[in-house]
Fold this protein.
Amino acid sequence: MKKIFLFLPILVILIISTFLLIYLLQNKEPNKPPSALLNENLPEFTIVNLLDKNEIFNIQNIEKKFVLINFFASWCAPCKVEHPLFFEIKKQHPNLYLIGINHKDKKNDAIKYLNSDGNPYDFIGVDGDGFIGLEFGVFGLPETFLVNSSGIVINKFLGPLTKKIINDEIKPYIK
């Protein structure tokens, strides 16, 4: 019986190491978790404009266009880091439709943020309760989705966009 207790720690370490090795061999990237929306149709949603509550947006507004949907908030520091890049991408690709979705933020804070840092978006929707973010599977900010002209979500980006991400993973699709 004492011999079993001597080998028990070795057996536990061996089991844990086996599971770790299997995980590492699966080539999963922790910064790119799977998204249920990838290669699927953009979910149906209707959203009110942050700056004009009489303006309503739904996916029929973007038929036949490449779209970049960015979930952001005024309190989100990484959102502020990526914000200037949206001006650059909009300038270089004016046919790309940029949608900003203000997620779980106070309306006045969001408007103040956009007034001070500028507004690169073609449309800014309000997702105060987070239900649209839930439809998209958003679990952190910022998150950005690239949608092709057929309405299919072709990529999802977690965290702030960078020039490298824009050049390597967005621009090839929107030329």
